[in-house]
Amino acid sequence: MKQFLSVVVSKFRSIHVIFVLIFSGLLCTSTWLTWNQLDFHVRSDLQHQYRSIVKTTAEQAAQTAKPLIQSDDRLSLQVYAKESIEKRKLDSITFYSPSQEVLAYANRAGAAHITQRVTSSAEITSGSTALGSVSVVLSTEPLEKILNQTSSQIVLIALAVWVLGLILLRSLFHVYEQKVAAMAKKIQNPIATKHQAPDTRNFIELQPIATELEAFIQKNTEKNNLENSLNQLLNHQIASQISKESAPRESQIQPFHASVLYVRASGLDQLKSNLPNHEAAKLVSEYVAIVQQAAKLYNGFVEVQANGLAVIFGAPQKMNEHCLHAVCAASFLYRLLNNYNSQRIVQAKALLKFQIAIHSGDVYCFDTPEQASMAVFGDIIFEAAQLANLAKAGQILLSENARNEPDLTNKVHCKGPYNLSTSSFTCPLTYQVSSLDDNYNTLIERQVKHIASLRQPA
What we know:
The structure is a single chain. This protein is α+β, with helices and mostly antiparallel strands and about 450 residues long. The protein folds into 2 domains: about 1-245, no CATH class; about 255-455, Nucleotide cyclase, GGDEF domain (Alpha-Beta Plaits), CATH 3.30.70. The chain has 11 helices and 12 strands. It has helices spanning about 1-70, 75-90, 140-190, 200-220, 225-240, 270-275, 275-295, 320-345, 380-390, 400-405, 440-455; strands at about 90-95, 100-105, 115-125, 130-140, 250-265, 300-305, 310-315, 355-365, 375, 395-400, 410-420, 425-435. Helix 8 crosses helix 11 (about 440-455).
C-alpha cells in the first residue's frame, strides 16, 4: 500500500501538467469559436441596421425634395442638399433627374478620401410619374470603430475567463495532491496522525477564488445576455449620432415687426444652363455665400425662396433699427458683388447681377425652444419678392412702408415716389435709395476693405 501511494504521488505531477495543457487548449479553442460567432452576429446585425438607417435617410430626402423638383427650384434643392450634409452627418448627397442629370450635389469636406461607406438610393415619384432620384452616401468609419472596440472587450472577457479557469484547475489539482500526500503520510505514521485535525488551509484559501469565479461566470458567460447588451449599447450610439434631429420638439409661433431684404439673381437660370453641372452648383453656392455674409454682418436671418433669397431683419430676433440694417446690408451686398464680378471679368466669365427690394411689415416666426430650426413667413416676403422683380440691376427699391420706418429718417436719402407695375403686380408708391449718410457709407467701405484684405493670399 505504501509503495502504491508513493507511485501515485510521483505520477500525479506528470498527469497534472498534461491535463492542464489539454484543458488550456480546449478552453482556448472554445473561447476563440465563441468570440468569432458572437462577433459575426453582432457585426451582421449592426451593419444591417446601419444600411436601414441610410435607406430611411434617402427616402426622407426624396420626400422633402419632391416639391422642389416639381417646381424646378434647383437653388432651393442645392441649399437643402448642403443642409442635409451638416444636419444628418452625411458624406455626400446627389439629386438626379429621370435622365440622370445632376440637379444638386453636396459633400462633406474630406469625404472623397473615405473608402468605407454605405450608399443608398431612392426614387422620387409623383403618382406613376418618375421625377428623379436621390443618392445618399454615409461613411461606415464610426461603425467600424465601435465594432473594433467591442471586439477588444470580448477578447478581454475571454482572456479573463481563461485565466480564472486555469487558476481554478490549478487550485483543484493542488488540493487533491495534498490529500494524497496526507493519506500516504497517515499510512506511514498512523499513531502520530491519529489525533491530528485535518488540514483545511487549502480549502480556506480556495473558497474566495471559487466564490469570485462563480459570480463572474454567472454574470458574464451567458451568451445571449452579453449579445443583447452589446446590441443595445451600439444601437444607442449609432442612433444618437445619425438621427439626432428626428426627436419631436415643441414649437411656437410669434409675431414680429420686421423688414425683408429680397435678393434675386437676375438671369441666374439662363446663366446656369450654359455651364457644366459642377460650375453651375459652384455659382449658386457663391451667390448664396455673398448674401449670407451680408446677413451675418447685419444680424439678418436668411430664408430660401422659390426665385431668390429673403433676408429678414427683426425676426426671429427683435431689432430696433431693422429697416436701416436692411438698407446697409443691401449697400454692402452691391459692394461685395462688384468685387466678385471684377474677379469674373479677369476670368472671362459672365457677370452676376442682383435685383434688390426692401419691404416692412408684420411677420410670424415659427421656431423651437432649442433654436435648431426656424421659419419666418408672412405676406411681406411675397410683396418684397414682387417688388424685387421691378428693380433694375444696381437699384435698391423701398416700399412705402419701408420708406416710412422712423429709423431711416435723416440717414437714408431716396428718390421718388414712383408708380411701378407689371401685368400681375402694382406698387403705387415706390422709392429708390440714392445714398446713405456719410458715416454709414464710410463704415460700409471699411467693412468691404477688411473682408477683401482677409481674402488676399498671405
